[in-house]
Design goal:
Helix content: over 70%
Structural class: mainly alpha
Distance between the termini: 31 Å
Number of domains: 2
Number of helices: 13
Order of helices and strands: HHHHHHHHHHHHH
Strand content: under 5%
Shape: globular
Radius of gyration: 18 Å
Length: 282
């Protein structure tokens, strides 16, 4: 997660539309628009719906789980479409992941690859962070991407062809809890590089973190139950919490804190853990 997709120009028309929306509906819809502008290629800023400067983004991250759920919903709708076309399950799952990558600009996949290269190739904190700044992908990053895509595709394919609707709710659960893991690591860890994107925006406060976690728990329980039943939903929440907290501790030890790349990596790892739980316990 090396960068967001908004332009950050904060034009007058954008501000006017956002202020009108906030007066009519409260701040949360605006926060969702800001989150989607940052996490996807949706041109929310150009449409006058959001801007992603530091102050707006730092507060809007409370809606990351909701934005993640909407991203998962988009992937789930695509899953229903390709499933109706009678594609083989693995091919259908790969089409869905390709669609999600186009929607998000592969933002978190990029972070996963950079993090894997840094952690795998660096001998100390400084060298790991230096490697992570390099835009070129190395062997560790390539392997991490292969494993991430392969695991997610096979787990999504497990819902096909019998239960594509359950697969939709599994994607909503995984994408929502993955974004909650971003907020957790962002809020709980210091920036490893104060000049990086995440460090420049600033850490979300504890109230923002609590709101994000509550939203994620509600979405995870409801969507996870619809995907695979209540036991699987609870296990998925536990798996997400375990991965998020474990990776936070690992990042602090190996890198001294979080970076935009590690936030992308924890999203990918958490989504995989959630899909594993929902598939294994459904």
């Amino acid at each position: 997660m090396t960068a967001g997709h908004g332009s950050g120009d904060g034009g007058g028309r954008t501000g006017a539309v956002m202020d009108a929306t906030e007066r009519k509906f409260g701040r949360f819809p605006r926060d969702v628009a800001v989150s989607l502008a940052f996490l996807t290629r949706i041109p929310a800023e150009r449409l006058g719906l959001a801007r992603t400067d530091g102050a707006d983004l730092r507060g809007a991250v409370r809606s990351f789980p909701v934005a993640g759920g909407l991203i998962g919903l988009a992937g789930g709708v695509l899953l229903l479409v390709v499933s109706a076309l009678k594609l083989p399950p693995m091919a259908a799952a790969l089409v869905v992941l390709a669609g999600l990558a186009l929607l998000t600009g592969a933002l978190h996949e990029d972070g996963l690859a950079d993090t894997a290269d840094g952690l795998g190739g660096g001998s100390d904190m400084a060298s790991r962070l230096s490697i992570m700044r390099d835009s070129r992908i190395g062997s560790y990053g390539a392997l991490a991407l292969i494993l991430s895509v392969g695991l997610r595709a096979s787990l999504i394919a497990a819902f096909l062809p019998e239960a594509p609707l359950a697969g939709l709710f599994a994607l909503v659960t995984a994408e929502s809890l993955g974004r909650a893991a971003i907020v957790h690591n962002w809020a709980e860890l210091p920036p490893a590089r104060p000049d990086g994107l995440a460090g420049g925006v600033g850490r979300p406060d504890q109230e923002t973190l609590r709101m994000a976690l509550v939203a994620a728990i509600v979405i995870g329980l409801v969507a996870g139950t619809l995907a695979a039943g209540p036991i699987a939903a609870i296990v998925a929440l536990a798996a997400a919490a375990l991965v998020a907290t474990s990776f936070a501790s690992f990042s602090l030890h190996r890198l001294g804190g979080h970076t935009g790349d590690t936030l992308g990596a924890v999203e990918q790892l958490t989504a995989i853990a959630v899909l594993l739980a929902l598939t294994a316990f459904r």
